[in-house]
């Protein structure tokens, strides 16, 4: 009895989620410590203490007020979220990135996923095209399908995993409404270079003029703060006028279950006023209504907090060096918490299945629109990384590496 749309979604059900469930089953069978589950991007470091303190303080403050007839922190609010929360985030961004936002430029969202969906609902008509750079976060397909839009895939340079800009230029059409950029990238860990972003901006400007259209660059940036080796946190609005930002606290404060993030619409974006109003309405009519109230206020008190980047950096070095030494070809991650590994055989699904024999769980590259590679999410304990290396050695031996 399910709809045709959902029947299709069920057939292509997320490879990552399926792998996650398989991991749970293997852990029950072989013991948690004997399964090396690199499948899911669930942060491995706890949320900062300040965040839990802020939640407690907020509840105590709300209880202390205790006004009957007023729901206070538990009540409905404007669909965009609390004004003081948006203003605090705007000021934090301005301080860090030299922008000039106010509360008016922000809408609080139900994570990055909620943010992308309300942007898409606001800008997409059926058959519109959204360009993505392979490899990409697989759910973009479903988000575009929610609004009957099409995903158009641009190939990467297979050495650097920077996008192929000639391919980008050739794929922009009069129906291109948006290009999604995700840097630091899931699944490669690559950061797009400032020159790459400048070139992307120039191509989009040129194509807008050619077709007489507006093309939005959507910066999907849940990993903005997760950068290594002296790489700087970047904010993409400076490269191109029509840039919209979708941010999430899921990874930066280890809060994926709380569902909190925001969208930024800069004043200089085309039709900014209409966009903001559209995004607010979409937040309501898609059923989110508003981002969760308590956690909005809590993150606003923790904007100076950072996740434990050093923790992930240690896993990154150990896994990258360990696997490279074993003969695997890996892209050195510059950010996020993923390692992108070339499959020793063309069909990476075969490689993934071989890995399972040694209790290694990896996600196939085709789930990210890029077969021939696999993704390892190293947001796991140091012990899991360390204890997985002998299993990877056995896997390497299977392929004579
Ligand atoms: N975009 C990318 C690139 C992601 O990796 C993720 C989650 O892993 C999301 C969006 C969704 O994030 P959220 O949990 O904030 O909805």
What is the CATH T-level topology of the largest domain? Aspartate Aminotransferase, domain 2
The first-level CATH class name of the largest domain: Alpha Beta
Q: CATH homologous superfamily of the largest domain?
A: Type I PLP-dependent aspartate aminotransferase-like (Major domain)
- Total count of domains: 2
* Shape designation: globular
Strand order of the largest sheet: 2-8-7-6-5-3-4
Report, as a whole number of angstroms, the end-to-end distance. 50 Å
Structural class assignment:
alpha/beta
Helix proportion of residues, in percent? Answer: 40-55%
Sheet with most strands: 7 strands, mixed
Q: How does CATH name the architecture of the largest domain?
A: 3-Layer(aba) Sandwich
Number-wise, the strands total 13
Bound molecules: pyridoxal-5'-phosphate
The number of distinct helices, counting runs of at least 4 residues, comes to 13
The SSE order reads HHEHHEHEHEHEHEEEHHHEEHEEEH
Summary tags:
seven-stranded mixed β-sheet; four-stranded antiparallel β-sheet; Aspartate Aminotransferase, domain 1; 401 residues; binds pyridoxal-5'-phosphate; Aspartate Aminotransferase, domain 2; 2 domains
Could you characterize what this model shows?
With 401 residues, this protein is of the alpha/beta class. The chain folds into 2 domains: 4-47 and 308-398, Aspartate Aminotransferase, domain 1, CATH 3.90.1150; 52-300, Type I PLP-dependent aspartate aminotransferase-like (Major domain) (Aspartate Aminotransferase, domain 2). The protein contains 13 helices and 13 strands. The chain has helices spanning 4-11, 15-30, 49-65, 83-97, 111-123, 139-145, 165-171, 194-211, 272-285, 293-300, 309-325, 348-356, 382-398, and strands spanning 36-37, 106-109, 129-133, 150-154, 176-181, 216-220, 243-248, 261-264, 330-331, 338-342, 360-361, 363-364, 373-377. Helix 4 runs parallel beside helix 10 (293-300). The longest helix is centred in the middle third of the chain and has 18 residues, at 194-211. The termini are far apart. The protein binds pyridoxal-5'-phosphate. Pyridoxal-5'-phosphate binds at residues 41, 111-113, 137, 182, 186, 220, 222, 248, 250, 256, 261. This is Aminotransferase. InterPro entries: Aminotransferase_I/II_large, NHTrfase_class1_PyrdxlP-BS, PyrdxlP-dep_Trfase, PyrdxlP-dep_Trfase_major, PyrdxlP-dep_Trfase_small. Residues 34-389 form the Aminotransferase class I/classII large domain. Keywords: Aminotransferase, Transferase.
């Amino acid at each position: 009895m399910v709809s045709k749309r959902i029947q299709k979604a069920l057939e292509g059900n997320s490879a990552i989620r399926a792998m996650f469930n398989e991991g749970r089953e293997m852990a029950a069978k072989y013991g948690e410590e004997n399964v090396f589950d690199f499948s899911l991007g669930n942060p491995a470091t706890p949320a900062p203490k300040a965040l839990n303190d802020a939640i407690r303080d907020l509840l105590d403050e709300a209880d202390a007020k205790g006004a009957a007839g007023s729901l206070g922190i538990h009540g409905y609010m404007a669909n965009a979220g609390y004004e003081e929360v948006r203003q605090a985030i705007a000021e934090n961004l301005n301080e860090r990135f030299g922008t000039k936002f106010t509360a008016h430029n922000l809408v609080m969202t139900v994570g990055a996923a909620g943010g992308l969906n309300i942007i898409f609902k606001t800008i997409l008509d059926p058959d519109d095209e959204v360009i993505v750079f392979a490899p990409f976060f697989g759910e973009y397909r479903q988000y575009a399908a929610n609004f009957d839009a099409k995903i158009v895939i641009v190939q990467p340079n297979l050495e650097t995993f920077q996008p192929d800009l000639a391919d980008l230029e050739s794929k922009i059409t009069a129906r291109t409404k948006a290009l999604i950029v995700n840097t630091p990238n899931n699944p490669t860990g690559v950061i797009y270079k400032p020159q790459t972003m400048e070139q992307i901006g120039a191509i989009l400007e040129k194509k807008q003029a050619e077709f007489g259209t507006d093309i939005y660059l959507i910066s999907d940036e849940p990993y903005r703060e997760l950068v290594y080796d002296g790489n700087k946190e970047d904010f993409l609005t400076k490269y191109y006028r029509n840039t919209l930002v979708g941010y999430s606290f899921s990874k930066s404060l280890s809060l994926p279950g709380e569902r909190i993030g925001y969208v930024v619409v800069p004043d200089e974006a085309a039709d900014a006023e209409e966009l903001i109003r559209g995004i607010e309405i979409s937040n309501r009519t898609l059923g989110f209504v508003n981002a969760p109230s308590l956690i909005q206020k809590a993150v606003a008190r923790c904007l100076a907090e950072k996740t434990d980047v050093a923790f992930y950096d240690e896993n990154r070095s150990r896994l990258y060096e360990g696997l490279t030494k074993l003969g695997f070809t890996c892209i050195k991650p510059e950010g996020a918490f993923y390692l992108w590994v070339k499959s020793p055989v063309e069909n990476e699904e075969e490689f993934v299945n071989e890995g399972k024999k040694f209790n290694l769980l990896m996600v196939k590259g085709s789930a990210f629109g890029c077969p021939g590679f696999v993704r390892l999410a190293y947001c796991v304990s140091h012990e899991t990384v360390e204890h997985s290396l002998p299993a990877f050695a056995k896997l390497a031996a299977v392929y004579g590496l």
